[in-house]
User: Fold this.
Amino acid sequence: MAAPMIFVSLIGVTVRSVLFYSFVSSWLTDRVEISTPLTSWKSMVEGVTLLEWGISPYAGDIFHETPLLLYTFYSVHAVCPTLVPVIFVMLDLITALVLRKVATRTMKYLYNQQKQKEKNYASGVSPLLIVSSDLISIPDLVMTIYLFCPYTIVTCVAQCTIVFTNLAIAATFLFTLQGNAVAATLCLAFASYQSLYPVTLIIPVAMHIAIIKLQASKDKTISYQRPEAVHSILLTTTIFVFWLACFLGLSFLMLDSWSFLRSSYGFILAVPDLKPNMGLFWYFFTEMFEHFRTFFLWVFQINVFIYIAPLAIKMREHPLFVMLVQCIVITIFKSYPSVGDTTVYLSLLPVWSHTFHYFRNTLVVGVMMLLASVLCPVIWHLWIYAGSANANFFFAFTLIYNTAQIFLVTDLVFAFLRREFALKHGMEPLDEDGNKRSVRLQ
Assistant:
């Protein structure tokens, strides 16, 4: 790693270390934008305390973390409680380093693909092409964004356990790029074990590993109907199910009970806690009549799972991009989201900067995210402490926050598809008479 990136890493670690031992740390721990019932450090402390007193944390309705993480922090607390901030800072640093490697490998993969297809590209598309300097600059930018993104910093300082899931997802990207099915599915199984929704990423992960195996064969034609591809996808999926079963089985052995399933995954799916957060669920289900609740619960939850199929079909040759898009979809539609969920995909966006030429709402998305980030704490104070606002005010800004992400993901998909079209037909396609014709993506 180059000297500038070592310096960047030291600054990132220093900023987090200073904030950990300031008054900001305790204030951030209570922020509903950062901590959720699933990832809150206070909830983890309660679970560890109950375990020390010989009481099952899953007996009531307080603790919703997974047993593996519970026993990890139980052991850390027994040995040396002061190590907790160090663990969170180091996890953030490791995640940044992993994302840098992900960006490096992805850029090389995309650049090699571009070289193979470049002879078939239309003329005048050079602004849309990846240049060799991107292979060096973009990985450094990805790491810098992750280390200095305010969302990442506050999530780390608030000691939200989402950092474990983020590291697992980043590692899933890395091992998928390496074609390592065992390690990729292990990391993805852990991310799914922690927060359930990443289970949808198994589809693009299996697809990309199959593509790597097909490209390694003598016949480099990519077709998922070939026996080798079908075998690879089934094998990857089977290994993923095996790892997930191992995590669940180990959790059962720790507790001698399956009660954690209801407290963790049942809690995620049933959404019983309607404390305000950055998501879409809490306000709707607060206002909803009880006899409509089950129907709309299914409608809301299915959003996370339903989009992966059309995305995988439409962009079947680009499963890595599908993984990125699905990470954004999960962040938007999960039942208990926080700002920490955005950190991985925001950091990886520069990897697809060659599509930014066709972005249409960059300013709108940036302003909306900034407004929501700044004004959500203000509105919360006016609502809860000053009594001069209400739930409608706070939900309005959570809507702005999620609408900005919806604009971002639709812009990203449009720009990607528009670039693919332009590479084949030119940036300004002409009709038979030589006149410019409009492009309409179906």
Remarks:
- The chain has one domain: 3-425.
- Residues 83-117 form the longest helix (35 residues).
